[in-house]
Amino acid sequence: MKSKIHFYPDGDIIIIVDLTEFCVHKNVLCLASTVFKDMIINASQTSINDQMIMEITLNNESAKDFEDALSFIYPSVYITINWSNIVEMFRISEKFKMEVIFMSATTFAMEKFQENPLLFLSLSEKYGLKKLFKEASKLVIDDFIEFKEDPAFQTLSNETILALYKKHHEYVLNLHHLDVEDLKCNYTPKIRCDCVTGETDKLFKRLRKIKRFETPTPSKTYQILCTISDHESNGYSCIRNFFNEHLPNRFKEIFGTVEPLDSDRRNDKANRYLFIELGG
User: Fold this and answer.
1) pTM for the complete prediction?
2) Cβ atoms of residues 143 and 149 within 8 Å
3) Domains contained in the chain, CATH given
4) CB atoms within 10 A of CB 40
5) What does the pLDDT average to over 111-125?
6) Which letter does DSSP use for residue 167 in this model?
């Protein structure tokens, strides 16, 4: 059966995928894929209309997925990376080393990972995408209780699952033991001032607020502990320094490094997240 989209009269190579024939152009394939460039060197030939033409059969491939890949690299057909093809576009672009498709899939993933962080954590691990892995892990760790019950959680490697459990367990353990003295530890005012002494009550109230939650998310804990408005600080710079500088540093020492999502890195009020790194 001939492909309805990619069977070009001037094509100079036949690719057979799942009984579907694609008559395409060697130069297009070679420019898009180093794997096809090597395959063409050793391709056999077949006769069509008394003319010899190269032929390659791809086993264990879907005709629809291959058609989508061709549609992406051929300028005459328009197709985008979307939710329905993202998994297969990653797979087929990696298998055949189609760099343009792989980069487009990566761009889509970076733009959309917040909508399904567990899917993109799995894909980033599989295809070695360190930045995407780190970003997706921020959201998975932050809502770990829910994500660990998702069947897709089991698609992650044992190494990543253990790293996520470890990060979450350490967070919960440290949160359980957290007290005001821990947070005030090693604080030295920049100027001699008694204002912060009076902030102990504020810390007690914030800790009580945190512990009203069964297990508050790391980002919620950080938000409650480490931010203060001008109104709450009563205009005292020493109080702002305590909450906006000292407490974030203590949070890092107790729980580990936190960062905003990369897309929010210029927003001082953005949520801060714990994370793990690929290969870390």
Assistant:
1) 0.86
2) no
3) 2-103 (3.30.710.10), 133-280 (no CATH)
4) 17
5) 97
6) H
